[in-house]
Amino acid sequence: MICDILSNDLWIAREHLLKNNLSFVIVKNGKILYESFESGIKGILDAVKSYGENFVGSALADKVVGKAVVLVSLKAGVKSIYAKVISEGALDLASKHSISILYDETVKAIMNKSGTDVCPFEKAVASADDPEEAYKILYKMI
């Protein structure tokens, strides 16, 4: 578990995610800005499209975090992330960009829903470094 100085927002987001069995939640200044039960990356892409500027400096709690989620979080200006499960690549990327991370479990890669291959969204951004470009790639896929 990587734990720099984590904000109260991250703890609020984490508790709200777990208590309500959400897919993800975004918290800023102690207030829940967005929450979703929608699995997969579509929910967070839609949230960033609709409310992106409001998420600068926020905390994200998400059940499953791969490189795609971290890149979208970077685009939105998220400063901390809690993940029930995070991929090694997502953890490395978040650390390189000074996003504070709290997590329960790491995995080598985020898998597709059937567990037979790497998630298609992860494959799509495997070589992406630019959050804006990654967001465009991902949004075209939904």
Ends distance: 31 Å
| Multimeric organization | single chain
Radius of gyration, in Å, reads 13 Å
CATH topology: Cytidine Deaminase, domain 2
What do the pLDDT scores average to? 94
**Helix and strand run:** HEEHEHEHEHH
Structural class: alpha/beta
Biggest β-sheet: count, sense, barrel?
5 strands, mixed
Overall number of structural domains:
1
Total number of β-strand segments? 5
Number of helices: 6
Give the second-level CATH assignment, the architecture: 3-Layer(aba) Sandwich
Biggest sheet, spatial arrangement of strands: 2-1-3-4-5
Main CATH class: Alpha Beta
Strand content: 15-25%
CATH superfamily: Hypothetical protein TM1506
Helix content: 40-55%
Task: Write up this protein.
This protein has 142 residues and is an alpha/beta fold. The chain has a single domain (8-141), classed as Cytidine Deaminase, domain 2 (3-Layer(aba) Sandwich), CATH 3.40.140.30. It contains six helices and five strands. A five-stranded mixed beta sheet has the order 2-1-3-4-5. α3 (67-76) runs parallel beside α4 (88-96) and α3 (67-76) crosses α6. It is globular and about 35 Å long.
What keywords describe this structure?
disordered N terminus; Cytidine Deaminase, domain 2; single chain; about 140 residues; globular; alpha/beta; five-stranded mixed sheet
